[in-house]
Design goal:
There is one protein chain. The protein has 327 residues and is of the alpha+beta class. It has two domains: 25-51 and 170-206 and 224-320, no CATH class; 59-164, Jelly Rolls. Helices cover 54% and strands 20% of the residues. It contains eight helices and eleven strands. The longest helix is centred in the middle third of the chain and has 43 residues, at 166-208. The radius of gyration is 31 Å and the shape is elongated. The relative contact order is 0.13.
Length: 327
């Protein structure tokens, strides 16, 4: 077989280089990883908002006495003793313990039969205006009118009834947080994979490039690669702080320990960016927790979480490209 001409070998090399370049992950992978992490954050925030702002289906009534209510299908229901609450514009405050001799029953109005109920004192809920504890639990077989009968000789107090969402909410919580954890883990894995591949490609290109004189500034910073890797670790710790809060603190400790070593370099902008992310994140989180009693705090906490995630992802992308951040 005749040897390949010089131009042929050059064409083959060019084709190989093009294939190698196509194998290098683009910056779009960073955006994809960021979108995945953002979606996980939004899922957690939306679930928290649903838990906090979902309208209550509980119906209040005074006991002793009879209360008829429409129940929507076969489900488990709880009867509550609202020992601190507001009913018809009036504040009620009673003992948490039930009065002696109290009798409770549930009747299916369609058939006139009593529905089996059992004592249930293991669920307790408190918020800014109400404190209540479960009294009994029963399960309906079908939708329709049901009557709750509470008998006894004691002063009027407020009871309520609502669907028992607690077991379902527990499984939904596990599912949401499990999915969010997998989303964050996948985002970190994709980000790390793209970063490593791009770094390998950059190092390979540097090795094959023509040697250039090393200036004094480059010689004065032999540990820049290690400091860059450390900054990358801090960004990862900030993202991991969503699940293990102590990693958020560990990251800022690294920043302060190594800040002197990066002064005057482009990496200083990243360290100061990370420090500001930590302290502003802590500040807004404290404000959010303080304002939870008026519901606004939850929105502040969501905003703080998204803001921290944005800054960590933006910083990670700019760092991987070797770019400084604005002061």
């Amino acid at each position: 077989m005749a040897p390949c001409p010089r131009f042929c070998r050059g064409g083959a090399r060019a084709k190989m280089n093009t294939a190698d370049e196509r194998a290098i992950p683009g910056r779009g992978w960073y955006a994809f990883a960021g979108a995945l992490a953002f979606a996980s954050t939004v899922a957690i925030a939306a679930f928290g908002a649903w838990l906090l702002f979902a309208p209550s289906e509980r119906q209040q009534f005074l006991v002793p006495g009879r209360h008829t209510m429409q129940l929507a299908g076969a489900a488990s229901y709880l009867i509550w003793n609202e020992y601190q609450t507001v009913f018809d514009g009036q504040s009620y405050r009673d003992a948490e313990e039930l009065p002696q001799g109290m009798r409770l029953s549930v009747i299916d109005k369609a058939s006139g039969e009593r529905i089996a109920s059992r004592s249930s004192r293991n669920v307790k809920v408190s918020d800014s205006s109400t404190k209540r504890r479960s009294v009994a639990q029963f399960r309906t077989l079908h939708a329709g009118m049901h009557e709750i009968v509470v008998e006894g000789d004691f002063p009027p107090r407020v009871f309520s009834a609502s669907r028992d969402y607690f077991v379902g909410a527990l499984w939904r919580t596990v599912g949401i947080f499990g999915s969010a954890f997998l989303g964050f883990a996948a985002a970190v894995a994709i980000f790390g994979w793209a970063y490593i591949r791009r770094e390998e490609a950059a190092n390979a290109a540097a090795r094959t490039a023509a040697p250039t004189p090393v200036d004094a500034a480059a010689q004065a910073q032999p540990n820049e690669t290690e400091l860059k890797r450390l900054a990358m670790i801090v960004y990862a710790l900030q993202i991991a702080g969503y699940f293990v809060g102590v990693t958020f603190i560990a990251g800022v400790i690294i920043n302060y320990i190594k800040l002197k070593e990066v002064e005057g370099t482009w990496l200083e902008s990243h360290f100061r960016w990370q420090i500001r992310t930590f302290w502003f994140g802590v500040m807004w989180s404290c404000i959010g927790f303080a304002l939870l009693v008026v519901m606004v705090g939850f929105l502040i906490l969501i905003g703080a979480a998204v803001w921290v995630l944005y800054r960590a992802i933006k910083g990670w992308i700019e760092l991987s490209e070797g770019k400084p951040l604005p002061g």
